[in-house]
Amino acid sequence: MAGWLTGKVTEKIQWNDRLFSLRIQSAFKDFVPGQFVRVALDIEGERVARPYSLVNNPDDDTLEIFFNIVLEGPLSPRLAALEAGDEVFLSEKATGFLIINEVPECRHLWLLATGTGVGPFLSILNSQQAWLRFEKIVLAYSVRDLSELSYRQQISAIEKQHGDQFLFVPFITREEVAGAINKRIPESLEEGSFEQRTGININENDSHVMMCGNSAMISSVTECLEKRGLRKHRRREPGHITIEKYH
Ligand SMILES: Cc1cc2nc3c(=O)[nH]c(=O)nc-3n(C[C@H](O)[C@H](O)[C@H](O)COP(=O)(O)OP(=O)(O)OC[C@H]3O[C@@H](n4cnc5c(N)ncnc54)[C@H](O)[C@@H]3O)c2cc1C
User: Fold this and answer.
1) Is the CB of 81 under 6 A from ligand 1?
2) What is the pLDDT of residues 37-74, one digit of tens each?
3) Which class is domain 100-245?
């Protein structure tokens, strides 16, 4: 079996009735913003593990994961029930290619997230490297209602720190909220309101698009962008689209 580290929950943040973040202290340190670890608990004699992206900056003392409860799932409801002081297991290494070292040279980085998919992008936005590489970074964060729009303070701090280099576009699909686009990301991209909001557009010369979250958003946006000549990024065949599907 792969090696496991023991971690201790130091803090639980509850964003609404289904959304939580856990801060975890462990010997684990080394990862690249955008990567994920496997988090596990022993449930009825079995070690049950699932991948979770890291939200924190690699320099932080504690790791942080952000997740929602999937009621029928074995692990996420149990993770949500943990309290400070409880133990979890973590894989020894982080992995994943949703990282900017993999992104070819371009001017604009577009980060498109649904729900908890915003987590790895916060880690990227909270590290220096991205700000040194891209002229503009757009974060599109889509949720169903305002109570799901987590990490708002952290996002505001990024806005303050990076000014015009950072464009934050919240999408709230089931509630009209001032300042947010009341549509799903794919629809807004198709009709043009998303890019209008940013003042720049997604094209094959200037842009790289990273997407994280549910597969419906990722597939629809990929289809739309492929019509414009963008293609999935592969190491052997550099492209414009990098994805991580959570479910
Ligand atoms: C590379 C990777 C990174 C991931 N990182 C995160 C993360 O940072 N935060 C996070 O919340 N989830 C993340 N996930 C999903 C996570 O690993 C679990 O699948 C999820 O937390 C549910 O776990 P579970 O054991 O309760 O249910 P599972 O047995 O894993 O899933 C039960 C069912 O729920 C679906 N499902 C999985 N995740 C979700 C979800 N978020 N919302 C609705 N349905 C879902 C599954 O497709 C499956 O049909 C990631 C998945 C992958 C592949």
Assistant:
1) no
2) 999 999 999 999 999 999 999 999 999 999 999 999 99
3) alpha beta
